[in-house]
Specification:
- The longest helix is centred in the last third of the chain and has 36 residues, at 167-202.
- This protein has 203 residues and is mainly alpha-helical.
- Strands 1-2 form a two-stranded antiparallel ribbon.
- The chain is 69% helix and 3% strand.
Length: 203
């Protein structure tokens, strides 16, 4: 696989690597899982999370994200996607567009991402990251106003750290993800409570 200059932002460099590996018009999740081996978890998480920052797109990618999170949480080293998900594909041009759009928003964080070993790059920490990702996926699947962005952003930072094996970035990503999940869970609980109150008032 081609090595890209370190001066490019991690997301742009990662996406360029993905696109270079697959010359076809569409790239399937199965192809990516196979091509990137042990790095596939981080790569797939990132590519599934980037569209979730776009309103209305999150729930589409929530299910594969949930499956990957659970597998990671159970200690799998390489993703094993069910055939129906492995066939899911992304357009090359969409992947490139997502990279350029998200890199602008994450540029400040990307500057500081570099390989740094530590607890959060260990196998035990990967399990924690996996279960956190599964929880984020549930937030993306469940409908709620403003519940996608905060947890997804934290998870993107976490995924960047996983790919680059950066202990510090993963740590901050974990904190951001937990904070985002607390906000999203609070919103969902409030929506359910209000719904129950309205139903009680009507009937």
């Amino acid at each position: 696989m081609p090595h890209h200059a370190d001066d490019s932002a991690p997301i742009s460099r990662i996406v360029a690597e993905v696109v270079a590996a697959f010359p076809g018009e569409r790239i399937t999740l199965g192809q990516m899982a196979e091509a990137f081996g042990e790095r596939a978890f981080g790569m797939l998480l990132l590519l599934l999370l980037l569209p979730s920052m776009i309103p209305g797109m999150a729930s589409v990618f929530g299910t594969p994200l949930l499956i990957l999170g659970i597998q990671m949480g159970m200690g799998h080293r390489v993703p094993k996607l069910p055939a129906i998900l492995a066939r899911q594909s992304l357009k090359r041009e969409d992947v490139l567009r997502l990279a350029s759009a998200s890199s602008k928003g994450l540029s400040r964080i990307e500057k500081y991402v570099k390989p740094r070993p530590g607890f959060w790059t260990s196998a035990a920490a990967e399990r924690i990251i996996g279960w956190l990702t599964a929880y984020v996926a549930l937030m993306l699947i469940l409908p709620g106003p403003g519940t996608n962005g905060p947890p997804a952003f934290g998870n993107i930072v976490m995924s960047l750290g996983v790919i680059e094996q950066d202990n510090r970035t993963i740590f901050w990503g974990v904190l951001l993800t937990i904070g985002g999940c607390i906000i999203a869970t609070g919103v969902l609980v409030a929506v359910v409570w209000l719904g129950a109150e309205v139903l009680g008032w009507m009937f």
